[in-house]
Design a protein that fits this description.
single chain, 98 residues, mainly alpha, 81% helix, 0% strand, elongated
């Protein structure tokens, strides 16, 4: 039986994934400079070295303020990813009462 804490962790995990998707979508749209087809392709791409190389090349073409915003989005996304990993680890480990 699931405890209230496990339920809360599950709902927070779902909310964090939604936030992660939103940040990734915003980053893809920013680096594509409004090109919807490119943004869609960047958003749906798997995270590989080729994908990261392409994103870095696109970031270099941005203006300085847009580059700073892109870096902030990446840092925020990485922070969310770390929290997601920790919540997922807690859920897999299970909640036990002493």
């Amino acid at each position: 039986m699931r405890t209230n804490l496990t339920r809360h962790l599950a709902s927070s995990l779902a909310a964090l994934w939604c936030e992660h998707k939103t940040v990734r979508r915003e980053y893809a749209f920013l680096t594509s400079k409004g090109d919807r087809n490119l943004a869609r392709r960047l958003y749906r791409a798997s995270e590989s070295d080729a994908h990261f190389t392409e994103c870095i090349e696109l970031e270099r073409q941005l203006s300085k303020p847009d580059r700073r915003y892109a870096v902030r989005l990446v840092k925020y996304g990485l922070g969310i990813g770390e929290i997601i990993d920790e919540v997922d680890r807690l859920m897999k480990r299970g909640i036990r009462r002493n």
